[in-house]
Design brief:
heterodimer, A: 385 residues, alpha+beta, Butyryl-Coa Dehydrogenase, subunit A, domain 1, Butyryl-CoA Dehydrogenase, subunit A, domain 2, Butyryl-CoA Dehydrogenase, subunit A, domain 3, 3 domains, 4-stranded antiparallel beta sheet, 13 helices, globular, B: 381 residues, 4-stranded mixed beta sheet, 12 helices, 8 strands, 50% helix
């Protein structure tokens, strides 16, 4: 087992870092996060350079690489800035559903523009008053000779009011038990008649990926817009979540590392009581803990991505990576804020938004409790009666 | 059974305050959060109703109440889920300096306004390079005839924009020993040479104006020296005790409030199986554990309040309470947010604001690292 990055993987990391260093302007990020706007100009450049669709097939203008390479980009972007870094990768949110489950025609039509950063994709999975039940889908899609007619409201849709392409989880057969077997995924372009977006929600973290509810009123899509198989929507969502949780884990690692970098620089400069903060034993031990946790979480996440690329993806690995990486990000960003003291609380010094973004990552796609349920399911397995 | 000896008058005061906050404060909180400041009129309404500086003597317009009244205000303010109208900071942290150390003339000049809300106060200790290490402060105060000339800059000053009166800690450059060089001065809004710097953007405490203050050849009359010259450090050390205790009380009250809201949420929302969320064993355990912690904190705090009121030496326990209760409120805000799942990602969830607000509590009023250092010192370690 090789624990080191290959030469080309190192180059990807370096290229992502150079790009982020050149384009991620601190003032701009603070300004746009406050306004909850998404920097389309930077996305276009990231797309041109191949950072967005790095793990998409070459046939659809992707980089032809694996999830591993994708998460190296996510991690590196988020290290430079947790908010913008995550936002750039979220421009292609749920594109993997089309990529992994969609047919060739669907992929040919939609994937290249997402890879290029020209179009934004998103997943409309949750519904109003979300919380505990991903399977509570009231949005319906009825089949008729011309395709599907969709009705319902989705909430917490990332970039819901800016996305061009929605992957929508719909109930297509409400008579089936369990309900999850009567669901399908449909692709809906935002310019179709009957697609309405409502006001954005103010968010705690991840503020460059604002959420907006999306309402579908008798929206018609052709039969070709079915992603994967009828009745397999929920199963596909679960499989997508494996991939997405590993992606979020990587963003959390980058978020932790970025806050750590800033705290480390600060304690080496800041003097109180006649010495550098880095000379106080308690600071040193905290730094050791932080560094330690980041390393551990990083390798777990890398391992989960490697398993995924080898076709051995599991809910367990993805949830372990997500749980560990986001808890690490919370602990590390929290301590970074504390090390910077009053400055740590000020917007200008950045670590405060790393802390909020870490919390966002910890809840999004399942709280720690949800991850533990998933891990326990697989670890314990089926019990004998 | 209660630890603190609240009388019927205290209960009435709490009831009246809660009604006032529900009617006149809470409905405007979102607006103030957006505005990044609380209007002066809200301070004046608080004052008019007797909710500012309840411990100030009737000689200066106060109600001469005991510290229980301050505790009640601090606790009830937590229910408004905002920090801008920081009555505890004004009433229990800043004004007590004037009450304890100012001359009779100074008291007559300022205290009635502090009570009515016409004078909002701030205390300026922290500097860009002197945070935890207060001895490192560099703002100077030099005598020039009948005047004192202040030079230097302060940062992270709460009420920095709205304050009408600022207590400034400054050093006499002629004195070498930093512990004997510091004096406290009263500086009024509008004094030439006193300028407000930036209104600082921060993670939370949005409705509270945190700002930089600049003093450039700022001339104040000698009569604005508060207490004895060179005694600044001693005065700060003495009053920082109550500041830390009040911080612990505010944190404890916040922890109780967010836990109450989160418990209600878990009882009134259902999970995938249709059961209330609170029936999930892991959630139930978490709620029980958090409630236990909060009750332990409450017992410790109430006993400490009693000892503080009795004038006992509680430096160790106060340092412990400040660090433990502020960490508790931070920790709980994180866990309570998880209990709201995806709703917790948005600012519509009240815990989201608490999560942002409570993060500063382990930092201000002396970082929690400093608290442990102090406790250790007084424990003879």
């Amino acid at each position: 087992m090789d624990f080191t990055l290959s030469k080309s993987q190192k180059e990807i990391k370096k290229a992502a870092w150079e790009f982020a260093r050149g384009k991620f302007d601190k003032e701009m990020i603070i300004e746009q996060s406050k306004a909850q706007t998404f920097p389309l100009d930077i996305l276009e450049k990231a797309g041109e350079l191949g950072f967005i669709g790095i793990h998409f097939d070459e046939a659809y203008e992707g980089g032809g690489l694996g999830l591993f390479e994708d998460i190296l980009v996510s991690e590196t972007f988020c290290r430079k800035d947790s908010t913008l870094g995550a936002a750039l990768k979220f421009s292609a949110y749920a594109a993997e559903c089309i990529l992994r489950f969609g047919d060739k025609a669907l992929k040919e039509t939609f994937i290249p523009a997402i890879a290029g950063g020209q179009r934004i994709s998103t997943g409309a999975f949750l519904e109003p008053d979300p919380g505990y039940d991903l399977s509570a889908v009231k949005t319906t899609a009825e089949k008729d000779p011309d395709g599907w007619i969709i009705n319902g409201v989705k909430s917490h849709v990332p970039l819901g009011d800016q996305a061009d392409i929605h992957v929508v989880l719909c109930a297509t057969d409400p008579t089936v038990e369990p309900r999850t077997k009567g669901m399908s995924m449909l692709l809906v372009e935002s310019d179709r008649e009957g697609v309405f977006t409502e006001n954005r929600t103010e968010k705690l973290g991840g503020r460059m990926v604002p959420f907006a509810p999306v309402r579908f009123e008798n929206v018609r899509v052709p039969p070709t817009h079915l992603i994967g198989s009828e009745g397999m929507g929920y199963k596909q969502l679960e499989r997508f979540l494996i991939e997405n949780r590993i992606q979020i884990a990587a963003m959390a690692i980058g978020t932790a590392q970025g806050a750590f970098d800033r705290a480390l620089a600060y304690i080496k400069e800041r003097e109180q009581f006649g010495k550098k903060l880095a000379q106080f034993q308690i600071t040193r031990h905290k730094i050791a803990d932080m560094a330690n946790r980041i390393e551990g979480a990083r390798y777990l996440t890398y391992y989960a991505a490697t398993c995924f690329d080898q076709g051995k993806a599991s809910n367990r690995m993805a949830s372990m990576a997500k749980l560990t990486a986001t808890e690490t990000a919370m602990a590390v960003t929290d301590e970074s804020v504390q090390m910077l003291g009053g400055y740590g609380y000020m917007t200008e010094y950045e670590v405060e938004h790393f802390y909020r973004d870490a919390k966002h990552a910890e809840i999004f796609q399942g709280t720690p409790g949800v991850q533990k349920d998933i891990i326990a399911d697989e670890v314990i397995g089926k019990l004998k009666p | 059974m209660q630890i603190l000896n609240y009388t019927e008058a205290h209960h009435q005061y709490r009831k009246r305050l809660r009604g006032f906050l529900d009617a006149e404060i809470t409905p405007y909180v979102n607006q103030w959060e957006n505005d990044r400041i609380v209007p002066k009129s809200a301070w004046q309404r608080m004052g008019a109703e007797g909710f500012l500086c309840p411990c100030i003597s009737t000689d200066y317009g106060g109600m001469g109440g005991d510290f229980h009244y301050s505790v009640i205000v601090a606790e009830e303010m937590a229910r408004t889920n905002h920090t801008g109208l920081s009555a505890p900071l004004h009433s229990d942290v800043v004004v007590p300096y004037i009450d304890a150390f100012a001359s009779e003339e100074q008291k007559k000049r300022y205290l009635p306004g502090c009570v009515s809300g016409d004078i909002v106060t701030a205390v300026a200790m922290t500097e860009p390079d002197a945070g935890s290490d207060l001895a490192g402060l560099t703002t100077t105060a030099e005598k020039d005839g009948d005047e004192i000339v202040l030079n230097g800059s302060k940062t992270f000053i709460s009420n920095g924009i709205i304050s009408d009166l600022v207590i400034v800690a400054a050093k006499n450059p002629a004195v070498d020993n930093p512990y004997q060089a510091v004096s406290l001065y009263l500086v009024e809004d509008g004094t030439p040479g006193f300028k407000r710097g930036r209104h600082l953007d921060k993670m939370g405490f949005w409705s509270q104006d945190t700002a930089e203050l600049f003093f450039t050849n700022c001339r104040i009359p000698k009569a604005n020296l508060m207490g004895e010259e060179g005694q600044g450090f001693y005065m700060l050390m003495q009053k920082l005790q109550q500041e830390r205790l009040v911080t612990a009380i505010v944190a404890q009250a916040a922890a109780e409030v967010i836990l109450e809201w989160s418990t209600d949420y878990c009882k009134s929302h259902t999970d995938a199986s249709g059961k209330p969320v609170s029936k999930n064993q892991a959630v139930l355990f978490e709620l029980v554990e958090m409630t236990t912690e909060v009750k332990l904190g409450r017992t410790f705090i109430d006993k400490l309040i009693m000892e503080h009121m009795a004038g006992e030496n509680v430096v160790i326990e106060t340092s412990m309470a400040k660090y433990w209760c502020t960490d508790l409120s931070k920790r709980l805000s994180r866990k309570c947010l998880d209990l709201h799942a995806d709703f917790g990602l948005t600012e519509e969830c009240p815990i989201a604001r608490a999560f942002r607000d409570l993060r500063v509590m382990p930092i201000f009023a002396g970082t929690n690292e400093i608290m442990k250092q102090i406790a250790g010192k007084f424990m003879g370690l």
